[in-house]
Design a protein that fits this description.
Blueprint (H helix, E strand, L loop, with lengths): L1 E5 L7 E7 L31 H5 L3 E9 L10 E5 L11 H5 L5 E2 L4 E4 L2 E4 L3 E4 L6 E9 L7 E13 L4 E12 L27
Parallel strand pairs: 3-11
Antiparallel strand pairs: 1-2, 4-5, 4-9, 6-7, 7-11, 8-11, 9-10
């Protein structure tokens, strides 16, 4: 026979005063043990709810392009769209994927013309927070917010995948449109100088 031991509120087992045979001896019951809790951690000072909107909004991805066109001026309609490839080779718009809407914005008001070059004088923001990720390779300009006709297009200087939650924008000066100057009789006509570099003359010359 031997004494039965168990926890009695402390951390060291104590004898219960009962004599039991080895077969009837009970195991120590941890529920009777004194639990010493560690001290509370240091509290945070001036706590505020987490800014989840900032966490989910990524950086703005910069787009850039140079468009060569037969147009002689930037008209009142300059509706910008983004494509995953050349629109003449089966490319498709990714504007709705990025922004949630296929309706284009007219950015004619931010295009400033100096000679034969028109440049955006302010950032053209496509989205501040992409709805979904999409590969962007071409910028396409239409004459209407929906449907409409293509006025001009060009491949981006920096094709890239716009990641979900990230913004996408042409920073000021990042979108250039090279216009064509129309010649007249007796004068050189530098038609599309960036692409061809050819000098055209009138029939008399």
């Amino acid at each position: 026979m031997r004494f039965q031991y168990d926890y009695m509120g402390g951390t060291v087992p104590q004898s219960t005063g009962l004599l039991v045979c080895p077969k009837c001896e009970d195991a120590l019951d941890d529920q009777n043990r004194l639990l010493i809790l560690p001290p509370d951690p240091q509290p945070f000072r001036n706590t505020r709810p987490e800014n989840y909107m900032a966490d989910e909004t990524g950086p703005t991805q910069d787009l850039a392009a140079v468009i060569n066109t037969d147009e002689t001026a930037i008209g009142a309609s300059f509706y910008l769209d983004l494509y995953d490839d050349d629109p003449d080779a089966g490319g498709a718009s990714v504007l709705a994927t990025l922004t949630g809407s296929a309706t284009r914005t007219n950015d004619a008001s931010v295009m400033t013309t100096d000679g034969l070059v028109a440049t955006n004088n302010a950032a053209i923001t496509i989205t501040t927070e992409a709805e979904e990720g999409a590969f962007v390779a071409w910028v396409v300009i239409f004459d209407a917010a929906t449907a409409g006709n293509v006025i001009m297009s060009a491949e981006l200087i920096n094709p890239q995948t716009v990641t979900m939650w990230n913004g996408a924008a042409f920073a000021a000066g990042a979108l250039q449109v090279w216009l064509t100057e129309l010649g007249f009789e007796g004068q050189w006509d530098f038609s599309d100088p960036i692409q061809s570099g050819e000098l055209l003359t009138c029939g008399i010359c």
